[in-house]
Amino acid sequence: MIYKICPAALWNEAVSMGVFRGAPVDLQDGFIHFSASDQVAETAAKHFAGQSDLLLLHIDTATLGDRLKWEPSRGGALFPHLYDTLALDAVRKVDPLPLGPDGIHRFPPLSQ
Predict the structure, then answer these.
(1) In a domain? residue 44
(2) Which of 15, 20, 24, 97 could be bridged to 54 by S-S, CB 3.0 to 4.6 A?
(3) pLDDT value at position 76?
């Protein structure tokens, strides 16, 4: 599994369109940014600090084939990038990603 943090409004738009094309940063970079289970909390802290109304998408990598590339990013760590749109059937689960009283996002259980 890999993960995508997504504003609820953007996900709702994807559902109505039948495909997820990505967030503005994804469209700008030419691929959809994802995180592995051990990266997603840092992604939330770095790129979504203090934001509410977020969802956590759980994506099955087996459905993405060779369109998914693991490429160096922060400090050389490999992050998953999808060079295509994301079919909705690749999303196995969608969870709310609420802020805790300390302002840190509270994650549901994650799969490796």
Answers:
(1) yes
(2) 97
(3) 87
Mean pLDDT of the chain: 95
Q: Which two tokens stand for residue 43?
A: 């992604």
Q: How far is 63 from 20, CA to CA, in rounded Å?
A: 14
Q: Per the domain annotation, does 86 fall within a domain?
A: yes
What percent of the chain lies above the pLDDT cut of 70?
98
Number of domains in the chain: 1
Q: Would residue 108 count as lying in a domain?
A: no
The CATH number assigned to the domain holding 83 equals 3.20.170.20
33-68 tens-digit pLDDT? 999 999 999 999 999 999 999 999 999 999 999 999
In a domain, 76, yes or no: yes
What residues make up the domain containing 32? 2-96
Render pLDDT for 10-23 as a digit per residue (tens, 0 to 9).
999 999 999 999 99
